[in-house]
């Protein structure tokens, strides 16, 4: 039985390798109409500036920093820069700002 299985597998492999290789013609990529953006461009959106701040030695808080805490620090309620997202990794704080003009103001505060 094993011999038959091996013979069958060898016959299939030989017939596969014996077939001529036919290259399929490539289809040209159609341009998307300007009125309908591609999925990638629709989901990507506009790039936002990200401010990266390091903690001072020994100043890293025990808990994770929240968006509300960074709002208070930057003075978002009193015409300060408004962060869109805050992420903390190791000793760095990543603050994503929606408005590029807010980047310089947030940088001077931090």
Automatic annotation (TrEMBL):
Domain of life: Eukaryota
Name by which UniProt lists this protein: Uncharacterized protein
């Amino acid at each position: 039985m094993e011999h038959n299985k091996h013979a069958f597998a060898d016959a299939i492999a030989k017939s596969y390798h014996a077939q001529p290789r036919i290259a399929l013609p490539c289809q040209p990529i159609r341009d998307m109409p300007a009125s309908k953006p591609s999925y990638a461009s629709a989901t990507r959106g506009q790039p936002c500036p990200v401010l990266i701040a390091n903690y001072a030695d020994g100043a890293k808080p025990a808990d994770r920093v929240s968006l509300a805490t960074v709002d208070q620090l930057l003075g978002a309620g009193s015409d300060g820069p408004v962060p869109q997202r805050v992420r903390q990794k190791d000793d760095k704080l990543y603050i994503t700002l929606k408005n590029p003009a807010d980047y310089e103001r947030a940088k001077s505060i931090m």
